Amino acid sequence: MDMRNIIKKPIVTEKAAVLKEKHNKYTFVVDKDANKFQIKQAVESLFNVKVESVHTSNYLGKSKRMGMPAGYRSDWKKAIVKLGEGQEIQMVEEA
After folding, report:
1. DSSP helix/strand/coil, 45
2. Using CA of residue 57, residue 43, residue 17, residue 30, what is the dihedral sign?
3. How many CB atoms lie within 10 A of CB 40?
4. Are 6 and 54 spatial neighbours (Cβ–Cβ below 8 Å)?
5. How many CA atoms lie within 13 A of 69 on its CB side?
6. What is the pLDDT of residues 11-70, one digit of tens each?
7. Residue 28: in which H helix or E strand, if any?
8. Alpha carbon of 75 to those of 20, 60, 70: distances in Å?
């Protein structure tokens, strides 16, 4: 699996901002098949930082309707990555 395909996008919410400010944790949407070791390697190689820990959560897609037809959103996986002391990832919104 390619490192650039493991991390799909950052999650930018109020809760993610609080985790970043208080605990130096960053939140990403990652590939469903990626494990914690692969996520750690991807973050370290892409952002040149030292990762202390990785926590993951799997989310099932919600059922959605638009009039008569019904469908499902895709399943996805979230990773919360804690960086070492003094490490930081510069996000696009901050630049």
Report:
1. helix
2. negative
3. 19
4. no
5. 3
6. 999 999 999 999 999 999 999 999 999 999 999 999 999 999 999 999 999 999 888 889
7. strand 25-30
8. 25, 5, 16
Amino acid at 27: T
Which amino acid would we find at residue 48?
Answer: N
Residue with tokens 């996520």: 39
Greatest extent of the chain over all pairs of C-alpha atoms, in Å? 53
- AA identity, residue 83: L
Query: Distance (Å, rounded) from C-alpha 32 to C-alpha 29?
Result: 9
Cα gap 33→65, rounded to integer Å: 27
Q: How far is CA 8 from the centre of its chain?
A: 7
